[in-house]
Amino acid sequence: MARLLKIAKLTAKNPQLAAYKARITVRNGFTAKYDYYLRKGYASAPGCICIKLTNACNLRCKMCGQPREGHKEGDAKYAPVEFFQQTVSVDDYKAMVDEVQRYKPNIYLWGGEPFMYKDIIELIGHIKRRGMTAQVNTNGLYTRKYAKEIVEAGLDDIIVSIDGPPEVHDSVRGLKGTFNMLEKGIQALHEEKKRQGKKKPIIRVRGTVSPYNFEHIYSLIDISKRFGADSLNFNWTWFFTKETGVAYQRLMKKLFDIDAVSWVPYQEDVIMNDERRRQFEGIRRELLRIKNNGADIPITMSPNINPDQVEAYYTDIHETFGNDRCFSVWVKSYVLPNGDVTPCPDYPDFIAGNILQDKFMDIWNGEKYIKWRLELKKRKLFPSCYRCCDLFLSDVAVV
Ligand code: SF4
Ligand code: SF4
């Protein structure tokens, strides 16, 4: 009952977003499965389109798996400077939004740091004028600067990443003062909402459980409450082992003739030692406290791992906690900062088309996308899937 009350409070703040959440639950649970089993690779219109506005970021977080500025050629996280400069004009994004408007997908904006895309506010305003929901996932450093415009544009949902108390957060983020800036940004949002008489955007805190903050994840409950956040979501880190990375690369070459190297910066082979045991025990303890919390904000976790499964999450990559098929590529799609369209969030090696050359919906059910879906279905999972956030789409639990 307490959980239902928490969700009801959130629904009242943004009914349009709540309606989308209800729609996407049905989409993930039923329509995606109908398409998956019966439509030979075709998918109903997407429930969510995620636009990666830029590869550039103003931070260098320790747990970030993306290629990042400042690395030298030969480093796992190296990418040439042009990668960070890729950009699609706001008019091209608007054209895509207009094209998909009738299907009302949620539009999720991320990066890199999405507020480094200069026309983000204009794009949010356009999405809202077309009657769709818009979400942004940000590190929060620009929130103070854009607070007024964010609220005016009608953004539905802002997801800010926090790793723990100030010193932990700053250390994970690699820059002193980031917690403080983030806090000021959220305060500014609250003030603007009040000043403009608006309930949106919903403010969510997202905490990523990593070896760098494992002793402090419970503290995110108090921090979220202190920040006046509407909900708290825990994610796990996404990774490959060398074995799954090499297997993935080989398979992509064989099936699609592509050189799939996106896994390299995500490689993490856990060697059990005393420090690792201490980390896993620490996470287990924090998780137990979180699961027994009496907090009055909704807390979600994806995947929904039991405290006793923490070690398995890191050491047994083939354990997928009951999620043995990916339905996400029948529901969600990703547009990269150069306009390429890909089915997978963090490992964007397979490109199904480009919105600067083709209509999005022609790509979505085009020959390439269908081939990807059918090859995936044949195998249930690719080696890239075991620790991919989208494998656990339906495994988001309110704890
Ligand atoms: S803010 Fe996000 S994209 Fe930027 S370095 Fe940190 S984790 Fe990576
Ligand atoms: S689970 Fe696999 S197929 Fe699905 S989005 Fe992730 S990497 Fe792609």
Write up this protein:
The structure is a single chain. The chain is 41% helix and 12% strand. With 399 residues, it is an alpha/beta fold. It has an eleven-stranded mixed β-sheet. α5 (120-129) runs parallel beside α6 (143-153) and α6 (143-153) runs parallel beside α8 (178-196). It is globular, with a radius of gyration of 20 Å. One iron/sulfur cluster (SF4) is lined by residues 57, 59-61, 64, 66, 68, 111-113, 139. One iron/sulfur cluster is lined by residues 57, 59-61, 64, 66, 68, 111-113, 139.
Secondary-structure blueprint:
Layout: H1 2-13, H2 15-38, E1 48-52, H3 81-85, H4 90-100, E2 106-110, H5 120-129, E3 134-138, H6 143-153, E4 157-161, H7 166-173, H8 178-196, E5 202-209, H9 219-226, E6 231-236, H10 242-256, H11 274-291, E7 299-302, H12 310-315, E8 332-335, E9 340-342, E10 353-354, H13 360-364, H14 367-379, E11 397-398
List the secondary-structure elements in sequence, H or E: HHEHHEHEHEHHEHEHHEHEEEHHE
Average pLDDT figure? 93
The rough form would be described as globular
- Please indicate the percent range of residues in DSSP E strands (runs of 2 or more): 5-15%
Give the structural class.
Answer: alpha/beta
Q: What does the largest sheet look like?
A: 11 strands, mixed
Task: Tally the beta strands.
Answer: 11
- State the distance separating the first and last CA atoms: 13 Å
Which residue ranges are poorly predicted, with pLDDT under 50 across at least 5 consecutive positions?
none
Kindly summarize this structure in a few lines:
By secondary structure, this protein is of the alpha/beta class.
